[in-house]
Amino acid sequence: MESGTKSGTEFDNKTNDLVQSLYRPALEIGLTFDPRQSRLDIAGKGAGGSRVFEAVAKAFSLQALGIVDVEQVDREEWRFERFMSFTVKLPRPPKPFATVAVREIAFRRASDTAGKARFRAEAGRTAYDRIRDFGIKEANLFGELIGQVELEFKELPSAPDTEAERVGLTLSWPNRRSFKNALPEHMSVLDAWLRVELVPWSIQHGRS
Questions:
Q1: Rounded CA gap, 6 and 25, in Å?
Q2: Could you tell me which residues come within 8 angstroms of residue 202 by beta carbon, excluding any fewer than 6 positions away?
Q3: At 132, is the secondary structure helix, strand, or coil?
Q4: Strand, helix or coil for residue 113
């Protein structure tokens, strides 16, 4: 979509003179509609905030769905900005896990979950180590948005010559979670850990 007309100055390609110009900046807004739940999610950057989002939601509902009334509801979102710090301190992992680390971080565009860049570390390292490998500093990530974080939980080896069990917990924007290599008992333990330890620490309320 386009915003209102704005004026500026630029150099003319032919005369190299400074001339006044009129332009209409394009604004990016993403819409996702779930017909099963009659839920419409809108996201964007530099589009004018909630006032514009509300107008777009009403226009879409009326023209595409024939619905006049639109109800704005609260939703929970992972506060991924906490994971922007290279020195993030995670809550203590639940038993039987001994350690928890950030194995992967994926950045997203403002309008959706589509990836811009993904950093995954090999065993024994963290996603932050991998980011540093590319010469990226924490200050360089200012303004970026995280779309996904994978936490790796590791148990203590049951015997000296055995490999420690590793379980992955992936948090995806806005508030989804999934498991990797997890037994049912692992899922129940980690779900309880999420509710007690991580949710109060990393959930914020957005508007949907």
A1: 8
A2: 78, 79, 80, 82, 171
A3: helix
A4: coil
End-to-end Cα, the chain, rounded Å: 20
pLDDT in tens, 32-44: 777 776 777 777 6
Helices (H) and strands (E) in the chain, counts: 4, 11
Helix (H) or strand (E) holding 181: none
**Cα maximum dimension of the chain:** 79
pLDDT surpassing 50 at residue 172: yes
Enter the tokens of residue 129: 């180590």
Average pLDDT value over all residues in the chain = 80
Length of the chain: 208
Q: Is 88 left (phi over 0), alpha (psi -120 to 50) or beta?
A: beta
Query: What CA–CA distances, in Å, run from 95 to 19, 43, 156, 190?
Result: 68, 38, 10, 9
pTM score > 0.70 for this model?
no
